[in-house]
Design goal:
alpha/beta, 7-stranded parallel β-sheet, 39% helix, 12% strand
Amino acid sequence: MRACDAEVMVTGGTGFIGRWLLAELTRTKAVAAPVRRARQRAAELSAFVDAHGGDSRRLLVVEGDVEAASLGLSERFEQVRDVYHLAARFAFGLGVQEARRCNVEGSLRAAEWALGRPHLRRFVYLGGYRMMHASARPGAESVLTQRAWDRLYRQHGAYEGSKHESFLAVRRFAAERGLRWTAVHPSSVIGDSRTGETTQLTGVGEMVEQLWRGRLPALVGSERTFLPLVTVDYLARFLASVPERPETAEQDLCVLDQATPRLPALVRGIAAHMRRSPPAWVLPLGLVRLLPEALTGVTRESLSFLAEDAYDTSAADAHARAVGLVMPPIHTSVERWCDYLVATRFGATPGNAPGRRPASSVA
């Protein structure tokens, strides 16, 4: 495929969500994916796309970097209509400047590049469901002082803090420059609903591993703690459909399964499925914040995700109904995901996982 044929640009295409999105988009569209070390990674990414129902003949893997001017691209990609910005540094323990360089400055570079496409239809920004509380609502950037930003980074850590800042920066850029955008805010993303397959363990996956290995004596939070989930294949289909409807423009779409059990019930169900003993205690969040990480084994940055908040998914639900998307049953999806994690020894042997289907049978 040539650069002049690409209709869609996807940053972060080698990431967990990005891979599934490339497979979904290339069923019908010509897609370009800028990545670092493109020559070394193109074959593996193309094989993934073909194995997951996409068509790698419609995929162009090119050298690019969101931390570089013009995304490091040598071609102009004049025919691109939709730009998906998924690239982000996702890890706990990042330095603030490292996180900001990719997550904030890289997002603004991607937005600037998208604005320069003469046929742009939509810039789709991937945020996160925790951005939907009061401190990250539109307009908050006008009242947040530098001291407030510093406090946000201290409270949430570099990853989450930089994602909040990125979201507000992109919103401000779009308002000032007339960029047509949609923000999709998923909850914690688990494996494929049909096979359980995943390439990411950070967060909930690490908790499942601790449970499997008998190293999860307690949970943090309360019986009301809500850690919502969504499967990666549903999220990919949702993302692919967003630019097709003009009604989604200038919308924040929070994507999560409201049927996800509250955290203690979720973990008890997983323990029963894996035939492991569930945690004996639920420790209050305030207490765990006061204890050293070395004692609790809980990364302090992860604590901001353990909340009792409710999330408004009405706009995302309306879009899903309009395009005929139905979430897969969460209990079955969680069990398949856990089975995949155990079968692959939590990422140690991905090639030996059960349930992998040939491309022709993937719906």
